[in-house]
Amino acid sequence: MEVDVDDESLEMPELDAQQLDFPPPGRRNPRKQSGKKSLSKSKMKKLLKQELEKERKSNVFHSFSAFYEEQYGSARWSSLMACLLSKPRVACLVNKYCNESSVPPSTNSTRVPFLKLPVYESSALFPHPERDTHNVFDYYLMDAASVLVTEALDLEVGDKVLDLCAAPGGKTLGILQQLDLLQGALVANEPSPTRSKRLSKVISEYVPANLRTSIRVTRRNGIKWMEHDLYDKVLVDAPCSSERHLLHDPKELGTWTPRRTENCAKRQLALLFAALRAAKLYGRIVYSTCSLSQLENDSVISKALEKGKLDFEIIQKQWPVGERTEHGWIILPDVSQGWGPIYIAVLKKLSTKPELFEECVEDLEELQDTDGEPLLLLPGPES
């Protein structure tokens, strides 16, 4: 899951490791009761339970940190962790459908240099978006790296676009800023009823009613998307581990295990297969996540290549922000002025063989954890 930024993310406090209140594993800190009356058995039991839970969360946190330290190295992970714990950066995407948004919303605003779309950053907080005479909002707040994902689609006049994992709507809005709705069309898909409702709300708040006829919101299971060879461009902004979100939510972080990223990768591979099937011959597919895990990024592309049945090529792109990976590009906040995390891979479909798609997904029909752990997929703070 850009990180696009929703209303809750805007309220994320800046944290440091000490505020997570996780002591080193194996060290309990029972509260001494010297000089006080002894506690009842029930209170002692409650305190012991609390200490055990605190120790469990401590073990989870250190396991989480060790997992990513192994991937990035000790020095890089230390700087990356510090950035992830800080408050996410927010940029302002100016809405082209608003008739009163010709100037930046803040006198302190400067244009984000690595984007083609009118996106601004500011040292001050942006005021709340305002509606114009057509009742649409003038700008949308999100991570600038998320806008880059939509620019990677390289949209053209007349394109028919599928946004396979569209909610809550930030990247969908980015697509709409580049799409000619009089000649092109957009299908925005989100299976979750709650998130689909929010997606529809974002579209209605930012696009005039007379242009929404070229936009369709669907609620299908993206993995089982049955249309094939239909779309010029497909975006798979796949649900992912969303580590930055986890670090700002101790309760969710306390449920983390390495199985989370493994399970996410299974779902993401199936979604990528669906996107490859849905795209036209020579159509472009952009695969993205807001995950730090290589299992959910380059490894998903590698596994699709290993299947050997889906004929596609990787389009190597380079942007002014971020760094190259084996198959794509990643924007990490420690070296990208605080933007990200965002991973992007750009693919081009080279053959049209729906039957090969069926063979590839047959072993992914049941995405159940064999150990019985529930498959919990966190979208990014804004997708």
TrEMBL record:
Residues binding S-adenosyl-L-methionine are: C165, A166, A167, P168, G169, G170, K171, E190, D237
Q: Which Pfam families does this one have? A: Methyltr_RsmB-F
Q: Which domain of life is it from?
A: Eukaryota
Q: Which GO terms describe its molecular function?
A: methyltransferase activity; RNA binding; RNA methyltransferase activity
Compartmental location: Mitochondrion
> Which PANTHER family does its entry note?
5-METHYLCYTOSINE RRNA METHYLTRANSFERASE NSUN4, NCL1 YEAST -RELATED NOL1/NOP2/FMU SUN DOMAIN-CONTAINING
Name of the protein this chain belongs to: NOL1/NOP2/Sun domain family member 4
Organism for this UniProt entry: Selaginella moellendorffii
Lineage, highest ranks first: Eukaryota, Viridiplantae, Streptophyta, Embryophyta, Tracheophyta
